[in-house]
Amino acid sequence: MGSRLPCFKRRKQVGGLWAYTKDPSMTTALPSTRALISKYTCGMSDFPMPDHYPPHLTQAQFQEYMESYAKHFDLLKDIVSRNDNDTKWRVEVTVNGVPRVEEFDKLALCHGYQTYPEMPKFECKEKFEDILMHAQQFRPEDVEKYKGKNVVMVGMSSTATDVINNIISHAANMYLSHRRGMYIFPTWRDKTPADLLLSWRRRRTGFLLQRYLPGPGASYLRPASCSVPPGASDTIIPLLQAGRLTSLHGIKRFLGPRSIEFTDGSVLDDIDAVVCATGYTADLTVAPFLSSSRPPNYSGPELLPMAVSNIFRHAHPLPSLTQMESAVDAHHAWLAARYAADTTPGSFDRSMVKSWEFQGFLHEAAGTGMENLGEPRLSWVMNHGVETAHAFRVFETGKRRAWEGAREAILRVNRDVASVDFYALRRLSLTRATNTHSPPTSPTQTQIISAQPS
Ligand SMILES: Cc1cc2nc3c(=O)[nH]c(=O)nc-3n(C[C@H](O)[C@H](O)[C@H](O)COP(=O)(O)OP(=O)(O)OC[C@H]3O[C@@H](n4cnc5c(N)ncnc54)[C@H](O)[C@@H]3O)c2cc1C
Ligand SMILES: NC(=O)c1ccc[n+]([C@@H]2O[C@H](COP(=O)([O-])OP(=O)(O)OC[C@H]3O[C@@H](n4cnc5c(N)ncnc54)[C@H](OP(=O)(O)O)[C@@H]3O)[C@@H](O)[C@H]2O)c1
């Protein structure tokens, strides 16, 4: 408590990749991007989402929400803390273009895990003469380039959906090339945002099954035949069904200036553009001692930062070094077994964690007190109702600040969800184009160049 927390960030605006930028070297949500999970489950614990936002926020609304959060809690100052303890982190930064070195006791790198484009290595790609690029470079301002063109979209996850939504009405023909398919779920199930079908109780039941019955437990959460993580899209399936998008196998190699061979042996000779929405990797050049970085599966937007801050300020003890080393060994053995069972080369995710263990650790470290929802009046609604982050701040555990508005905020979100006419809202959200917000900029723009123990 009482420590000062400088925050270095590279973009001019608050909001991470939700702050739209025209700079094609940065990953950005597009103005047409909508959040995949609804406002009821993706807000901050002590800062309710504005009533006038639709269930799924647009890029501009997400940015606006983050901006107003930062203003409300006065986070836009650039404060620098110093101390002479010799177990510090030495951080090289440029502040408004001027380089300087800072030293810190603790350092949290939250600079995103979707920074560098993951571009497939295609055989003979130099033979192709037209557009071959990663989706990170795509901007809606350039959409005219695709007018009347034959476009192959590689990858079928959410970025592919974003780009397809922008190009489909301009392109002559649009193809979707993928290696192994994907279980695609919509952001709405009938009249309800799909994330509202999950609850704290269902999630905990899933974790219990995964821990004690790993085979059937995994298929409780996703279809048994599906080895690829599922993705959300409201448009890919309808476009495929309508014949406006054609499904293709993965790209095997390029044969000529406009010619591509696919892994099933089929060839297309009239392709003008190939856009690879094939994912991203983290930028670990700032911390070369790290080998991978990816947040574990869903933990709620603030749970991980709450846990990290409690560990930093010794409100939650870390296990002993021996215990941590043996946990790391056991985790590596688990990963190695998963790797041995993996059948698609190049697709193994070595940063995966056992959510059913890690979530418990995070809640304990964050001090949410949610392991046992003893509060009788709220217990039912917290177990079976909307999974809102307000729940993280209900119980007084002494480990983090509880919020006196949390109980009412939880009841309110649940009342809203029960009373809302989602059918009408959905129709409205599908027809309304929303990008009127022009984001204010924050006073300083800083970039971490390297961070190492000093
Ligand atoms: C287009 C898109 C849409 C998404 N939609 C969803 C969604 O609907 N729901 C969901 O749950 N997740 C979604 N995701 C996942 C996404 O990762 C999160 O929404 C979220 O933005 C991650 O936040 P973050 O703070 O970890 O990273 P980011 O939002 O990437 O923020 C990292 C920040 O660090 C800055 N930075 C990077 N390097 C440096 C440096 N060296 N020095 C200083 N600053 C630096 C960056 O400029 C950026 O501002 C989406 C991802 C993408 C790419
Ligand atoms: N809110 C939104 O609307 C929104 C928009 C964009 C992104 N996002 C989020 O941002 C994150 C990144 O999404 P993303 O779509 O950029 O990446 P991603 O989720 O990592 O998906 C990459 C896609 O590319 C495929 N792929 C990878 N290598 C390939 C290759 N060599 N050939 C063919 N296909 C290949 C993958 O499937 P295989 O490995 O099976 O081939 C997968 O379909 C996700 O968390 C996503 O939910 C959200």
Automatic annotation (TrEMBL):
Record region (Disordered): 433-454
Listed InterPro entries: FAD/NAD-bd_sf (IPR036188), Flavin_mOase (IPR000960), Flavin_mOase-like (IPR020946), FMO-like (IPR050346)
Taxonomy of the source species: Eukaryota, Fungi, Dikarya, Ascomycota, Pezizomycotina
Stretches with biased composition (Low complexity): 443-454
Keywords: FAD, Flavoprotein, NADP, Oxidoreductase
Protein name according to UniProt: FAD/NAD(P)-binding domain-containing protein
Cited PANTHER family: DIMETHYLANILINE MONOOXYGENASE
Top-level taxon of the source organism: Eukaryota
Keyword Glycosyltransferase: no
